[in-house]
Design brief:
Layout: H1 3-6, H2 34-59, H3 61-67, H4 72-75, H5 77-100, H6 102-121, H7 126-155, H8 160-167, H9 169-188, H10 192-196, H11 198-209, H12 227-250, H13 256-278, H14 293-322, H15 328-333, H16 336-352, H17 358-377, H18 385-410, H19 419-450, H20 455-482
Length: 491
């Protein structure tokens, strides 16, 4: 299995993180105010393009390698470079929002992403395309946490669940429509259109953003940037993500190309944790938040659930392509039931989350996801596509049902000033959880498939690998049960 396949969904991260902060735009009405709805639609213009662009690009990697006369191992840095840039800027987001305000940072991030997209569309070589993808990543990495914080702040604590349905749209559309649109564009036009199509939509988002009210999150005490923390945390995250991306290439976690960056990254993050606990000023990430049982438990749920969710997004398309001989376009279409199930669950969960406790809803979602994953463990070379589609729908419903309350539970009881940096923390957990899950499953699948030379044997390798996904869901279940009980939300 090539690194191209491993990275097909490696840089796709779900983006849902509500906050329990003071409402800025929310009214007493039970429905979302029109200004919040307008704000959500404006922010989604940029957010959807970031999510779609991640998966559309990966479909074109083989074409890019041929056009630029380079190897797949080299051109995969188009994806890896984006992923590393995204990880690098996440820790800066909380401080930047507090220092400059949400709207200036949003406009700057959107401008970076738009500029990077335009430059990618005119790239003349593999190195230039990789460099321009890094520019995209610098913008996209800040955009997603900003969307999470801004919408939840605007809606207020009583409507967090409602906006979660909106924030979850990129998570639903990215892995489903991205490969389909990418396949259509690469097959019928030029790979350059994958990037150029972002430009007019992002320009429209820039124009619309100037006409909406974005809550101001400035905090005067946050002017000083924690340079020591930044020099420890950002390189640490980049090293870990890079090490995990190399695990699939070398087929083992014991290889030096994997162990060295992983060890360096873990050491840097531990050094940051010590620094953050000792410093008297505001660190990039407030690690003291993890003293709270609720924050820690739901953060663990996010981490393990991201491992399972991104693992499923990796394995299913590869199964359709490698076992059932489907091309990327048809493999993407066969994922549509999962997106449909997720969409239905997001709508229902976004309404229920404001009315019922988070833990029971998460448990329901995890049970649905586990049921579908167990069906995948029994997968064969000739398993009915109808049965797989039903399992995909149930899996998507489980993801949507658990996604909204899990991210809501993280922010229960947080002070307003803790919200931006808590958002950065959760985004890091999502990023690392997805990277760990994909790396582990890629290595397991390679090892399982190595000794199986037949189509039936390869299908069995996928079935065995799905047991690991089921284990990730079990760990998320344990973390959910460890979360403290909470009072029933006010109706």
């Amino acid at each position: 299995m090539t690194e191209t396949a491993i990275l097909s969904y490696a840089d796709y991260m779900t983006t849902t993180a509500p906050t329990a902060s003071t409402p800025v735009l929310a009214r007493a009405s039970d429905s979302l105010p029109p200004e919040v709805t307008k704000l959500a639609l404006t922010l989604m213009l940029g957010g959807i393009m970031v999510a779609l662009d991640m998966t559309m690009v990966n479909v074109a990697l083989d074409t890019l390698a041929r056009d630029f006369h380079t190897s797949v191992a080299s051109i995969q840095w188009v994806s890896t470079g984006y992923l590393l840039a995204l990880a690098m800027v996440i820790p800066l987001t909380g401080w930047a929002v507090e220092r400059f305000g949400a709207k200036p940072i949003w406009l700057a991030s959107l401008a970076f992403f738009t500029t990077g997209s335009m430059l990618c569309g005119i790239a003349w070589s593999a190195p230039s395309l990789i460099a321009f993808r890094v520019v995209q990543g610098l913008g996209g990495g800040m955009m997603m946490p900003l969307i999470q914080s801004v919408l939840a702040r605007a809606a207020g604590p009583d409507r967090v669940g409602r906006v979660m349905g909106v924030v979850g749209v990129p998570a639903m559309l990215g892995p489903v429509l991205g490969p389909v649109l990418g396949g259509v564009i690469v097959s019928g036009a030029s790979w350059r259109l994958i990037f150029c199509i972002n430009v007019p939509i992002c320009l429209a988002a820039l124009a619309a953003s100037r006409r909406v009210v974005i809550p101001d999150m400035k905090r005067p005490a946050a002017f000083r940037l924690d340079m020591l923390g930044l020099s420890l945390l950002s390189p640490g995250l980049v090293a870990i993500v890079y090490g995990l991306s190399q695990a699939g290439t070398h087929g083992s976690f014991a290889d030096g190309h994997v162990l060295v960056p992983l060890a360096a990254g873990i050491a840097l993050i531990l050094a940051f944790a010590i620094h953050a606990l000792r410093t008297r000023s505001d660190p990039l990430i407030d690690v003291r938040l993890f003293r709270g049982r609720r924050f820690t438990s739901f953060s663990a749920v996010v981490f393990f659930f991201s491992m399972a969710m991104l693992g499923t997004a990796l394995l299913l398309p590869l199964y359709y392509q490698q076992v059932r001989a489907q091309d990327a376009l048809h493999a993407g279409l066969l994922l549509a039931p999962q997106g449909l199930g997720m969409g239905v669950a997001l709508v229902v969960a976004s309404r229920l989350t404001d009315r019922v406790s988070a833990r029971p809803m998460i448990l329901v979602g995890l049970v649905l996801a586990a049921t579908a994953t167990f069906a995948y463990t029994q997968i064969g070379a000739h398993t009915s596509v109808s049965l797989l589609s039903v399992a995909a729908f149930v899996s998507g419903a489980g993801i949507g049902a658990a996604l909204v309350p899990a991210m809501t539970g993280v922010y229960k009881g947080l002070r307003d000033e803790a919200v931006p940096r808590a958002t950065s923390s959760i985004r890091i957990f999502q990023q690392l959880g997805g990277s760990f899950g994909i790396a582990i499953l890629a290595v397991v699948l390679q090892q399982e498939a190595a000794a199986r030379n037949t189509t039936a044997g390869l299908a069995g390798a996928f079935g065995q690998t799905f047991w690991w996904t089921l284990a990730f869901i079990a760990l998320a279940l344990v973390a959910t049960l460890m979360a403290p009980a909470e009072p029933r939300p006010r109706r």
